[in-house]
Amino acid sequence: xYDNVCKFLVxxxxxxxxxxxxxxxxxxxxxxxxxxxxEAVRAxxxxxxxxxxxxxxxxxxxxxxxxxxxxxxxxxxxxxRHFPDKPMRQVVIYLKSTRSHxxxxxxxxxxxxxxxxxxxxxxxxxxxxLCQFAGLLPLAILGRTTDRQQTLRKIAQHIDTLPDQRxxxxxxxxxxxxxxxxxxxxxxxxxxxxxxxxxxxIYTRYFExxxxxxxxxxxxxxxxxxATPTGTxxxxxxxxxxxxxxxxxxxxxxxxxxxxxxLYPARRPPDLVRSKYLTRLQETP
Length: 285
Hints:
Helices cover 47% and strands 12% of the residues. The chain is α/β, with parallel strands linked by helices. Strands 1-2-3-4-7 form a five-stranded mixed beta sheet. A two-stranded antiparallel ribbon has the order 5-6.
């Protein structure tokens, strides 16, 4: 969930990230992970941007991952195969503060091979530096501070000064999501303007409740029951409204049974399908 929001920020405000990471607001073009033959299961976490003179590879991590050094080396070799004439800047950005030693390595080294990458631990970054760019405002709440609530208020003030309402909506919604890593929902609701957040495509994509569209292609997954692909419940990260999961569970005894009957009229008895779905909903924490 959180890395998806960060990916949206990078793709929407690529020049802000270029200025922050490269020191120059150069134009960056998004590359598909398929350009490096990345498996679909790992593609969501990969952000590739290309300029005339380089390729920028970003990965956002909420939790420490012992496989990060190897993965960065693997992507570097794949990048060289496809773009042999371009240097590649690789940056891992850790979102949530931790004392784990796993967020420290910046190299992968085995006999005959050494690959280097950069690491940014947001909790060591100054929020003031991040607040200089609209696209980085949501990251500022995770920066180095002794008063998270006051930092969020400052971010909200910066958001209110943004000239473009569309940018205000997107940045507010992304800030609300990332603030959930360090602040309680009630605090976020008090500081950020709900009407602005709910107008963002981020809110529509991840938070807005509604019935599933189209028949499911397999067993219930997080996307259909209100949990994010990484298993995080939308109830945990959405500061406003009830999660789709809660609504689906409340309606399970009525509309869900009728919907299942409509979607599976010929495959199996409706009562059996309805029973199976109800069981899954009840077992889901």
